[in-house]
Structure prediction request, 251 residues.
Amino acid sequence: MTPAAIGCVAFACVFGGALIGMALRRILPEHHLSTDSKEVIKLAMGLTATMSALVLALLIASAKSSYDAQRNELTQLSATIILLDRGLAHYGPETKGARDLLRRYVAEMHDQIWVNDRTSAAELEPTAMLGESFYDNLQQLSPQTDVQRSIKLEAQKMSVDLGQTRWLLSEQRGSSIPMPFLVLLVFWVTIIFLSFGLFAPPNATVIAALFLCALSVAGAIFLILELDRPFGGLVRISDLPLRNAMAHLGP
Prediction:
């Protein structure tokens, strides 16, 4: 399911819980709504609210940590590309073919990851052809001086690091949000809203307030799930570092 669909389901559950609570208020015997009952329910809902806040904080921290990790890896990837190109430029004109392959590889990577349609999934798995051709081109270099030998060794190491980071981004494309935690959070918040509806007077102001609160909860869940998709959706990572790297690649 998409984040928007999950957000809608969460909203329906939470606001539906409030409406069910209002319906129960009308049919329950009066002694079930006594002051003593209210106090016990308030204590129970206080405990449930505390657990919900802890789970919500855990989900936010998990999504934010995954987002930051992949953003940092992209920044490191872009810096490696610039350093690799500059090193090859200092090697000499023999690396022109390798640098051309590097430019094509970076451009292809950008077009695969940042598709124009935000609803489409990013293609994070690297294509083997250009990357392997670039590495093979490096292997074929025949350094004549100590400086060139040093540059070749560094270029080989950076090319391996480049491929490793790219595959790392690909392997991290799965969700970092444990679905059982999300289901449990929605269940707990639904119970809390049911208790709100159970003791709230059924007027338009109360219903509007509960509606907005349920919408806020669903919006928070939606944003957490969007944050968990760093290369797609509304909160995707900017392609600025990679575009900057492409701009620094020399002829």
